[in-house]
Amino acid sequence: MAHLLGAEALHVDFGTGPVLGSVSIGLDDGDRIGVVGANGAGKSSLLKALAGRLEPHGGRITIARGTRIGVLDQSDHVDTALTVAQAIVGDMDQHEWAADPRVRDIMSGLVPDLPADAIVGDLSGGQQRRVALAHVLVGDHDAVFLDEPTNHLDVEGVTWLAEHLKRRWSGNRGALLVVTHDRWFLDEVTTKTWEVHDGEVDMYEGGYAAYVLQRVERDRIANVTEQRRQNLMRKELAWLRRGAPARTSKPKFRIDAANALIADVPPIRDSVKLHRMAAARLGKDVVELVRVGVTYGDKEVIRDLDWNIGPGDRIGLLGENGAGKSTLLRLVTGEQKPTSGRVKTGITVRVAQLSQQLAELEEHADERVSAVVKQFSSITLSDGQEMTPGQLLERMGFTSAQLKTPVGRLSGGQRRRLQLLVVLLSEPNVLVLDEPTNDLDTDMLAALEDLLDAWPGTLIVVSHDRYLMERITDTQFAVVDGGLRHLPGGVDEYVELSRQRRAGGAGIGTFGRDDARAGSGAPRQDDAAATVRAALPAAAATPASSAPTLSGAERREVEKELKAVERRMAKLEELTEGTHNEMVMHDQSDFTGLAAFMKTLKAYEDETAQLEERWLELSERLG
């Protein structure tokens, strides 16, 4: 592999202490490197220095002759006088770039909603950022440096970008250096990780999941205390191995070592206990939408929607811009009244929303952090632990020195963390998070997720960060065509259905009335097959006319087996629920016993998956 560039004894200091101190690193053909670290640790400074956009205060950088580097950093802006096409492809004639499949793919992946002749100055900040990213990707570069490229991209856009970068270069050609807090994206496109901290750069093999494992091992080898070993990163690793099918089916690191490290880590979230505590705080009624419709002028955004949100539900909402996600959130929070239908809210419900604009902190801009939280009392988490405002501040990474800092002088990430704590300390029992990952680094995201795991209430999340979506929610819905569609397959199902729609397939349909009433998508014990029916994509539905003709005896046999499958699925559902309840009552320090429960639950899960496949086969035979 050819060496592209290197840094020797790189030093950067802006007068407040070294951001980078005597760092020596290199970049070769074939490298796919993700850069992680706390906000302010020096990730962007490292990228700019290596790209030649920042003059280091010491050391030297060498670049191989002829190496072409494409860079997108957070300060990049597009000439607002240009058209979208000019900003992306320069002076190339339309017939030239329109005939280039690579350019067409980039424009359809990043700016599908923008006319080529639109003026950049008329676009939103997010749209301009996407144009700048498209301009970098169109270029023929040996190395591409990207600083937070997933900002302003929705789930589909992030997925497209990951696929583009994976196929951009053939073999061990080209190099990628990307700074991002999007952990799914890191795991998808990177094969090495650089962690920037305390002026140093630590190097790890593998993407985010492998990096987490090695950090845990590093702590263990350093002979830290048992309490330190059972830190957030071990919990993060446990979820990576247990809760993300896309990763556990094709692990990128040593499975045996990972299993040994997480053998005594209990499940990240006790759903039964959370639902029980949430029900005690909320009662049975939370928020129910009954035949709700919303129109703006002649445009119908929500149509005849039924949705029942229950206590302790953890729901993720996906959908394109303009699909109606924000409208749906405003209906839930009570900020907006429906044009038709009604919204029923339980009498004990207290809704809080984490806004993107940090509105909760505006009135506290001149107050110190300590004064802001002093007005609140302690809160109780689902595990019975009582946490004071000071403990929560420490848990979310605030130092004693920062407690004396006026809110208006905090960094974006610090304000975001304080905003979340202020919202949680106000003790809502329904929490709405709208793009909560903005300005948070990977460690703070892990701390946020850990805190929400034990928060006893109903949670509704809108986010383009699919890692966070999969991590903190138990069920996902797509907002499409004025309604909701349950996504049993999660974000992967949403991406696939969106891809089918773009390709002219049946695409994403909407829930029928009975399915929409299922609320969070939890299976109903009186109809075990309802979940399977919801899981069947509209594009996969088989018309009755295409089903093979069965004789009367054959049909009776198929119907008999189908009913037997449904009865067994219902029984497994009851057994699973009972096992969860037993786990709640079991001694939580008995890890051997808890492991036995987990083994039983895994067996139930495997059998259910086999039965669902058989149910689909039998249903297709019946037409």
UniProtKB/TrEMBL annotation:
<feature type="coiled-coil region">
    <location>
        <begin position="344"/>
        <end position="371"/>
    </location>
</feature>
<feature type="region of interest" description="Disordered">
    <location>
        <begin position="506"/>
        <end position="529"/>
    </location>
</feature>
<keyword id="KW-0067">ATP-binding</keyword>
<feature type="domain" description="ABC transporter">
    <location>
        <begin position="5"/>
        <end position="223"/>
    </location>
</feature>
<dbReference type="InterPro" id="IPR017871">
    <property type="entry name" value="ABC_transporter-like_CS"/>
</dbReference>
<feature type="coiled-coil region">
    <location>
        <begin position="555"/>
        <end position="621"/>
    </location>
</feature>
<dbReference type="GO" id="GO:0005524">
    <property type="term" value="F:ATP binding"/>
</dbReference>
<dbReference type="InterPro" id="IPR037118">
    <property type="entry name" value="Val-tRNA_synth_C_sf"/>
</dbReference>
<keyword id="KW-0547">Nucleotide-binding</keyword>
<dbReference type="InterPro" id="IPR032524">
    <property type="entry name" value="ABC_tran_C"/>
</dbReference>
<dbReference type="Pfam" id="PF00005">
    <property type="entry name" value="ABC_tran"/>
</dbReference>
<dbReference type="InterPro" id="IPR003593">
    <property type="entry name" value="AAA+_ATPase"/>
</dbReference>
<keyword id="KW-0175">Coiled coil</keyword>
<feature type="domain" description="ABC transporter">
    <location>
        <begin position="287"/>
        <end position="506"/>
    </location>
</feature>
<dbReference type="Pfam" id="PF16326">
    <property type="entry name" value="ABC_tran_CTD"/>
</dbReference>
<dbReference type="Pfam" id="PF12848">
    <property type="entry name" value="ABC_tran_Xtn"/>
</dbReference>
<protein>
    <submittedName>
        <fullName>Vitamin B12 import ATP-binding protein BtuD</fullName>
    </submittedName>
</protein>
<dbReference type="InterPro" id="IPR032781">
    <property type="entry name" value="ABC_tran_Xtn"/>
</dbReference>
<dbReference type="InterPro" id="IPR003439">
    <property type="entry name" value="ABC_transporter-like_ATP-bd"/>
</dbReference>
<dbReference type="InterPro" id="IPR051309">
    <property type="entry name" value="ABCF_ATPase"/>
</dbReference>
<dbReference type="InterPro" id="IPR027417">
    <property type="entry name" value="P-loop_NTPase"/>
</dbReference>
